[in-house]
Structures are given as C-alpha cells and as structure tokens.
Design a protein that fits this description.
The protein is mainly β. It has 1 helix and 12 strands; from the N terminus they run αββββββββββββ.
Length: about 290
C-alpha cells in the first residue's frame, strides 16, 4: 500500500471516529482549546482578542539548541463563521555545536503573519465542526538556523472536531500542508520545502473552565513544495492543558516530545535533523 493510501486511510478512520453515535453534543468552545492544533470554532461576530503565543523548541543532534519565538496577535471576527488574525513575532536562538548549523546567540524581529479562518460546518447543526484555515507569513529570520533570510510560507489546515461526551470530552483532527520558499541572504541560495501531516487531540473538562488532555502530531518534511523527496518524519506526543482565567481571559499550555522519527540522511529512531526533540507552547489571550 502506498504512503498516500495509508494517509487517506488514517484520515478516514479519524473522521469516522468524529461522527455521531447518538444525539448531538454541544457546549464546548474549541477556538483556543488546543496548543499545536486548531479547533473548528472561530468566535462570535464582533469579537476582538489579543493573544500572546510563546513557542520553544529544544535539542537537536549534538551540541546545544534552544529556539524561542514570541508572537503577538490581534484577532477579529468581522462576520459570522469568519475570523481574521494578524501578528508579528520575535525569535531568540542559542545554538552551539549542532551539526549543520552555525553557532548563534541572538534575539531579532522575525516576521509578520496573517491568518484567515472560515467555518463551513457548525457542530450545533452538523455531525461535527469543519473549518478551513489559511495562514501566510513572511520572515526575515529562519526559525531553525536563525540565519538572515527572505522566507515566505503558507499553512493550509482543515480542522474537524466533535464533542464525544456532551460538555465533557471533545476530540479534534487537523490535516495540514505547509509549503515554504526561503532565500538565504549570506549566500543568495534558495530552497523550497514543505511539511504535511495529521494531528489528533482529545480534551476532557475536569471542572468548569479547566480542560486536560493530549495532542499527537505526525509530520513529514519534504524537499520541494510538490513533495518531491522525503527529508524526514516525526511523531510528537504530549499533554495539553487549558484554563479559563476569567470571563475574558484564558491560558493554554502544552509540552510535546518526539516519540519517534526518521531522517532520510541517517538512521535511528528519531529525526533530530529536520525536527527538535522537544517542543513547548504557552498561549495567553484576552477579549477586549
């Protein structure tokens, strides 16, 4: 069986798991429930939010590798089922003795992004929620090497979710394709690459406003935006927690570890060339 057939088969099973067994369940807002994934909810028309998202990526093959990005974002819901988000990011890197990367220790303005989401199916009227998201970003700092670049990328995501137990347990599935174009300022070299994958999550509301669960993501990195040559693959698994701080503020935290991976350049059970060993994310948001 081909890789494409396997991916389609896994996606079909995951979508089937979201289909209703009995009556419809409602009550949980999934817009900001996850850390490395997105939910199908997009907020109510007229809502405005400020969000701070901190992402840390740690440990590669040999040496010391620490990369932290800080994104500041504004979210608007100008119409029903449609959300816009604009933001900018700073990036801090501490790299020493990592194979294939120059030693760097710097803090710099990274770039800007704009995100559009449209919800096609609402869980209140459909078997599950369905949202399509397009995020475009332009960067001047490479997120992996910290080199000065001109980078343009687009993240395409299809998000499904459904409450498995009314107002208690919710499950989600994301399918995504992320092509990127990069030109390095120091050598004037350019490269094209893409990441595709699937992610699943299950969250349970242990008490009103507090959710605990986990996310699992399977990522495949390719040379070329047309998925020309497989560079590596990895499976990330980790816990996620969501806390509603007040009627207008919230906090989401997640830690994800590479449980399995394989690089095209080397063997082993991890891919520390294309991905990191650990990834963490902290998101704070407030309505205004």
């Amino acid at each position: 069986m081909s890789v494409r057939a396997k991916v389609i088969g896994v996606a079909s099973v995951c979508i089937a798991a979201l289909l209703p067994i009995g009556g419809h369940a409602e009550g949980i807002d999934t817009e900001h429930l996850f850390a490395f994934m997105i939910g199908s909810d997009v907020g109510n028309a007229g809502e405005r939010e400020f969000q701070s998202q901190t992402t840390g990526r740690f440990s590669k093959s040999g040496g010391r590798y620490r990369a932290v990005s800080q994104e500041l974002e504004l979210e608007f819901v100008p119409a029903k089922n449609f959300r816009i988000e604009v933001g900018g990011a700073f990036a801090a890197h501490d790299i020493a003795g990592v194979s294939g990367l120059d030693d760097r220790r710097q803090l710099a303005w990274q770039g800007a992004s704009v995100d559009f989401r449209y919800r096609f199916w609402d869980r209140e009227t459909s078997p599950f929620g369905l949202t399509f998201a397009v995020e475009t970003h332009a960067d001047r700092i490479d997120e992996t090497s910290a080199a000065l670049v001109r980078k343009y990328g687009t993240d395409l995501t299809v998000a499904f979710d459904r409450e498995l137990v009314p107002n208690f347990v919710v499950a989600a599935l994301n399918l995504f394709y992320q092509p990127e174009w990069t030109r390095f300022a120091s050598s004037d070299m350019s490269e094209r690459e893409a990441t595709v994958g699937a992610a699943v999550a299950v969250m349970a509301q242990l008490r009103p406003g507090f959710f605990l669960g986990g996310e699992a993501r399977y990522l495949r990195r390719y040379e070329g935006i047309g998925l020309d040559e497989l560079a590596g693959q990895a499976l990330f698994i980790g816990p996620t927690a969501y806390l509603k701080l007040s009627e207008k503020s919230r906090l989401t935290a997640s830690w994800s570890v590479q449980a399995w991976g394989r690089s095209a350049e080397s063997g082993g059970t991890l891919d520390l060339t294309n991905f990191e060993r650990h990834q963490a994310r902290l998101i704070y948001g407030i309505n205004f």
